[in-house]
């Protein structure tokens, strides 16, 4: 295993290389109280919902009458799918959803691979 510290005063963000992947040992060890964790989840929920509405409104401006379901199957609407602004905003939504999933996994004590977290290294 090869590690190398990332310089930041007072914090160890060493990288760990396993199986061809890079992991940051300091990343998943945030000690949050329950209220802070719940607030973080609420903020992520609001962020995702806001972006979901934004994507739907944009799609409806391009192609009036589209529903949430239509937007989830946007490839059926080439005028919407081909719009670069729609592509950007939809990509933002996908990123927010990925961050939401990652946050929930971390706060529930698991890892993104579904296994238990590894023991912290000194």
Report what the structure shows:
It contains four helices and three strands; from the N terminus they run βββαααα. Helix content is 51%, strand content 8%. The chain has a three-stranded antiparallel beta sheet, with no helix packed on it. With 122 residues, it is mainly alpha-helical. The longest helix is centred in the middle third of the chain and has 29 residues, at 34-62. It has helices at 34-62, 68-72, 78-81, 84-107; strands at 3-4, 15-18, 21-24. The protein has two domains: 1-30, no CATH class; 32-107, no CATH class. 7% of the residues are buried. Mean pLDDT is 78; it is low at 1-8. Helix 1 (34-62) packs antiparallel against helix 4 (84-107). A hairpin with a 2-residue loop joins strand 2 (15-18) and strand 3 (21-24).
């Amino acid at each position: 295993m090869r590690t190398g510290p990332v310089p930041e005063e007072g914090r160890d963000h060493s990288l760990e290389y396993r199986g061809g992947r890079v992991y940051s040992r300091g990343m998943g060890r945030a000690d949050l109280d329950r209220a802070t964790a719940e607030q973080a989840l609420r903020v992520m929920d609001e962020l995702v919902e806001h972006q979901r509405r934004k994507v739907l409104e944009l799609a409806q401006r391009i192609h009036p009458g589209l529903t949430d379901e239509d937007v989830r199957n946007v490839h059926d609407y080439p005028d919407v799918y081909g719009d670069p602004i729609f592509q950007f905003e939809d990509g933002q939504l996908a990123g927010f959803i990925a961050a939401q999933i990652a946050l929930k996994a971390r706060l529930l004590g698991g890892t993104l691979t579904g296994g238990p977290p590894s023991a912290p290294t000194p």
